[in-house]
Design goal:
Layout lengths: L4 H6 L1 E7 L4 E8 L13 E10 L6 E7 L9 E5 L5 H16 L6 E8 L9 E2 L2 H9 L8 H14 L4 E6 L9 H4 L5 H7 L8 H15 L8 E6 L3 E7 L2 E5 L22 H5 L6 E3 L8 E3 H8 L2 H6 L4 H7 L6 H24 L6 E5 H6 L1 H10 L9 H6 L7 E3 L8 E5 L3 H11 L6
Parallel strand pairs: 1-6, 6-8, 9-14, 14-16
Antiparallel strand pairs: 1-2, 2-3, 3-4, 4-5, 7-8, 9-10, 10-11, 12-13, 15-16
Helix pairs in contact: 2-4, 7-16, 11-12, 12-14
The site of acetylphosphate has 10 residues, from loops.
Length: 438
């Protein structure tokens, strides 16, 4: 563990979020632990944010802005041709760090990495050969994610050799899902031997949202029942009972549940054998940092499906733009299909929560930005008591703060939008973990 006096005094935490199609990076300074934070988020101070989107469909879009300039000034945005994977995206960011922010790499003490699949690891772990191997073994169960995270971890170890790389797992938040909900109706011996159960993902996002909503409503997290949607390139939904995950729509892998940009979501498991007669063939992707072995079935359902397969674009904003009644049927179909699947889960989770739902929360790029999607889902689930304030829904994007109320009711069954922040969640956890700062 790197632990030099200078490094600890400066206390910089870099938080890196390798999503399926993006790399989001934030740099924080850990605040002096003697100063009592007013809000939980204040244990760290944001210095800069950067994101690289459309990583797999060139050109990638790079953005970089210093926190002091996030109100619209000095945000650098550019298309970059030579970014074609997460490793090259990270290396492009590191070049900017010195030239645009004058930050020396040696000032970074810890690098927090979002790792989607942690299997039976629940606590954050410092990367060493054992934990690296554990994450690598799980790559087959998160083919769009774990390999990408490992490629960034490798890049970090090379470029920031004095810093600790610490893995934070999406799966940790869902350890509370009861056995009968996490289990599949298959041979229990095989399930146990091979770890075949529901793990659930987007957990760092759900943990952040729970904290932010609890702060916003001034209600202890342990008293909250929420239905939270995280709708981005990967989309999922989570039922939170008394502040803990009760159920979520993704499963053994991030493929199940809701459809995503390139993912089918839940389908009849037999469908794939009627789609192709090569479903079981193993493919190796040489561009991946680690050897990820996936079948053609997984390849088709993970990368050749979702709204890109339905409409030709992975950008849901474009789907929404073209989905008006005058638009072509395929755009409308993609939009209605997603609304239908989300609404189905909202109904199911309302039953799980025995009707006691404090709020329905929209998050992730689509949940946070699509006025139309929120409108359609709330309309479809109105029988459960959800109702939008249309003006508040339309102007939600303009409001400050991580949580915006877009519902009619201010006492029960609220409808909220939360700007989720997985990087901030990791940095907070890191700053508060004394063991990393001794
Ligand atoms: N105004 C918008 N309306 C609908 N969807 C949007 C809008 N803006 C962005 N999006 C969607 O949000 C997605 C990105 O969400 P995000 O949560 O950042 O994704 P990621 O899974 O890469 O972390 C984009 O791919 C795009 O489809
Ligand atoms: C788990 C998952 O699908 O993550 P993302 O949405 O970042 O791809
Ligand atoms: Mg994401």
């Amino acid at each position: 563990m790197a632990n030099s006096e200078t490094a600890c005094q400066s206390g910089l935490i870099l938080a890196v979020n390798a999503g399926s199609s993006s790399l989001k990076i934030s740099l924080f300074r850990r605040r002096n632990s003697d100063a009592k934070p007013v809000q939980p988020d204040h244990v760290v101070e944001l210095l800069l944010v950067s994101s690289i989107t459309q990583i797999s469909s060139s050109p990638a879009l790079f953005s970089f802005s210093l926190a002091s300039h996030t109100q619209g000034r000095e945000v650098k945005k550019e298309s970059v041709d030579n970014i074609n994977d997460h490793a090259s995206a990270f290396s492009h960011f590191l070049d900017y760090l010195k030239t645009e922010a004058s930050i020396e790499r040696s000032e970074i003490v810890h690098v927090c990495h979002r790792v989607v699949h942690g299997g039976d690891y629940f606590e954050p772990v410092i990367i060493n050969s054992e934990s690296y191997h554990h994450i690598k073994i799980l790559s087959d169960l998160a083919p769009l994610h774990n390999g990408a995270a490992l490629s960034v971890i490798k890049g970090c170890i090379d470029a920031l050799p004095h810093a600790n790389s610490i893995a934070y797992f999406d799966t940790s938040f869902h350890r509370s899902i009861p056995l009968h909900i996490a289990s599949y109706a298959i041979n229990p011996d095989v399930a146990k031997k091979r770890g075949l159960k529901k793990y659930g993902f987007h957990g760092l996002s759900y943990a952040y949202i729970l904290g932010a909503v609890s702060h916003y409503l001034q209600q202890d997290a342990s008293t909250l029942n929420l239905i939270v949607t995280h709708l981005g390139s990967g989309a999922s939904i989570c039922a939170i009972r008394a502040g803990r995950s009760l159920d979520t729509s993704m499963g053994l892998t991030p493929l199940s549940g809701l459809p995503g940009a390139t993912r089918s979501g839940a389908v009849d498991p037999s469908l794939i054998f009627h789609y192709t007669n090569r479903a079981g063939r193993i493919t190796h992707d040489p561009s991946q940092a680690v050897d990820v072995r996936v079948t053609q079935a997984e390849e088709i359902l993970n990368t050749q499906s979702g709204w890109r397969a339905l409409t030709g674009t992975a950008d849901f904003a474009e789907v929404v733009k073209n989905a008006g009644w005058a638009g072509e049927g395929r755009w409308r179909l993609a939009f209605e299909l997603l609304v239908d699947r989300i609404s189905g889960f909202v109904g199911q989770y309302s039953v799980r929560l025995e009707g006691r739902v404090d709020a329905l929360v929209f998050a992730g790029g689509i949940g946070e930005k699509s006025v139309e999607l929120r409108e359609a889902v709330v309309k479809q689930t109105a029988c459960l008591g959800f109702e939008l304030d249309e003006a508040a829904n339309r102007t939600a994007n303009e409001k400050d703060g991580p949580v915006v109320d877009v519902g009619k009711s201010k006492d029960q069954r609220r409808v909220l939008v939360c700007r989720t922040d997985e990087q901030l969640e990791m940095a907070k956890e890191c700053a508060l973990a004394d063991k990393f700062w001794q």
